[in-house]
Specification:
This protein is about 35% helix and about 20% strand. The protein is α/β, with parallel strands linked by helices. α2 (about 30-45) packs parallel to α3 and α2 (about 30-45) crosses α8 (about 185-200).
Length: about 230
């Protein structure tokens, strides 16, 4: 086992590590949540990561987005992410897609993908992703954060978890646009999403299927809600 993975060996055996290397994940969004998710995936050794985001880094991203630095301002987020992954783990193949995710390009983006991970910032796009994952029989890990609060859930093929969560939310920008996001928030929720992704790829543990975690960082409480 390569030295970079030896600290994982008690929970991720060599055969599991090889399985991760042969897996492909898509991260839809490369901002606050997406940066931390991509970082975790690269260090886990997931072999192929498709990264989707149309934007470039701006100054207001500096408060919370891992790949946002003074040197990356004005650079496409997917390009900065690809360079970061190359510096961490060159065995990981990155496919940068500088487009907004939509129903139109969903089939191409999610082709040959084992799991899709939500790092979006608006309700409509999340529902489009959930619908596309169901059509293509791909598991989806959902995550959202706004202010001190976050949500995480997993939708397996044929499920309606994401739509059940979002049905009462207005279309348009997510709560993160109005509530703001502190620097620590994305790392917490992204950690949950990365763990769910790892479990899906390895077929291990109990997933957040038909249930959602509501994380309250202000009062340090985690509640589980049935979906």
């Amino acid at each position: 086992m390569p030295g970079r993975y030896r600290r994982n060996k008690n929970i991720i055996a060599p055969a599991d590590q090889l399985r991760l290397l042969r897996s492909a994940a898509a991260v839809i969004g490369c901002g606050g949540l997406g940066g931390y998710i991509i970082e975790a995936m690269a260090r886990l050794g997931i072999g192929k990561i498709v990264i989707v985001d149309p934007d470039t880094f701006e100054e207001h991203n500096l408060n919370r987005q891992l790949f946002s630095t003074l040197s990356t301002l004005g650079i496409p987020k997917v390009d900065a992410a690809a360079q970061r992954v190359a510096n961490i783990n060159p065995a990981v193949s990155v496919v940068p897609v500088r487009e907004a995710f939509s129903k139109t390009n969903a089939g191409d983006i999610l082709k040959d993908i084992d799991v899709a991970v939500d790092a979006l910032d608006n309700t409509a796009a999340r529902i489009d992703l959930a619908d596309a994952c169901n059509i293509l029989s791909i598991p989806m890990v959902y995550g959202a954060i706004g202010g001190w609060y976050g949500q995480v859930a997993t939708q397996m093929p044929g499920g309606r978890s994401v739509c059940d969560i979002l049905k009462n939310y207005p279309e348009g920008e997510g709560i993160e646009k109005t509530a703001g996001i502190p620097s620590f928030g994305p790392a917490v929720i992204a950690g949950f999403e990365a763990a769910e992704t790892c479990k899906i790829l390895l077929g291990r543990g109990s997933l957040l299927q038909n249930r959602m975690l509501f994380i309250n960082l202000l009062d340090m409480k985690i509640e589980e809600m049935a979906l």
